[in-house]
Amino acid sequence: MTAPAPAADFLDPAALMSIRNLELRARAVVEGFCHGIHRSPFHGFSVEFTEYRPYTIGDDPRYLDWRLMARTDRYFIKKYEDETNLRCHLLVDQSRSMSFGATVTKADYARTLAATLAYFLSKQGDAAGLLSFDEKVREYLPARNRPGHLRRLMLALEQPAGGGSTDLTAPLRRLAELVQKRGLVVFISDLLAPVEELERALALLTAARHEVIVFQVLDPAELTFDFPASTRFVDAETGREMLIDPARARADYTQRLEAHLATVQDICQRLGISYARLTTSQPLELALLDFLKLRAGRGKLVSRRNGARA
Fold first, then answer.
1. What pLDDT, on a 0 to 100 scale, did the predictor assign at position 264?
2. Integer Cα distance of 301 and 297 in angstroms
C-alpha cells in the first residue's frame, strides 16, 4: 500500500492532549486523518474499506470489484447490506501502570485512541461498546449506535487511570461472557503484565469467532530505558521503590522486554489476532491508519522502529 501523508501533517500527541474534551480530541484526529488521506496518494482508502471487504477463499468471484482491483492490486468484494454494520467492543486498560509518561501518559493515549475509534465507527453507522479494566472490570457499555451513546462512552473513558495491578485475563473472560454475538474486539493495553494466561484468555474470544485487534501502547522510554544515572523508580502497581543505574541495567532490561514483546506477538500470531505496537509519541492518525490496515489484512502484525513501518 502507498504511504499516507507525512506524519508531520498530523497532530503531535502532546498538543492533542491539550484539548481537554475527549470527544473533541477524537474528532480532531479523525478529521486530521481524513484530511491527510485526501492530500495523499492513499485517497479513497477510508471509503473503500468501509464499503468493501477482502476477498477470501470460498467467496463467489462474481462479486469481485475488478475496477478496485485494478487501482489497488488487491481483491475486494462489495459488502452485502447486512455486513456493513459492525459491532465493536473497545477493551481499555486503566490500571496504574498506564499512568506512566513524562509528556503523554499511556492512559491518555489509550483512551484517546479508543475515543477516536468509537468516533470513527459511529460516523460510519457502526456500533461501539466499551469495557475498561484494571484488576477488575470498571466500566461496561454494550455496543450501540443510538443518540447519546457515544457521549456516554466518552464520559466513561474520561475516568482517570489509577486502579491496582493489571489483570489481563479477567476482563477478556468477562467480555467473552458478555458478548455472545460475533463482532470486533479492540484490546488496548501496555500488556506489561505476566502473559502466561493471556493466550488462553484471548483464545476464548477467537473461539467465539470474534475478530480481535491488539494495540500495545508503550512510552518511548520503556523501549530505550534512556534515563539519567541513578534514577529512583517506583513500581506503579506495587509502590515498591528501587534505586537503579540505567546504564548498568539497560542491557538486561531490554533483553527481558524484547523477550516479553516477542511472546506477545507470538501469541497473537498463533491465534490469528492482528497486532500493532504503538508509542505515545506517534500521531493518533497513524494508529487509526493501522486499525484500517489491520482490518483489511486479518492476522497481521504492525510495528515501528524509529518511526518506520515493519
1. 95
2. 9
DSSP 271: H
Residue 252 C-alpha cell reads as 538486561
CA atoms of 278 and 268, how far apart (whole Å): 15
DSSP symbol at 31: H
Q: How far apart are CA 219 and CA 263, in angstroms?
A: 19
CB 308 within 8 A of CB 240: no
**pTM of the predicted protein model:** 0.78
Furthest C-alpha separation in the chain: 66
Q: Which comes out higher in pLDDT, residue 168 or 272?
A: 272
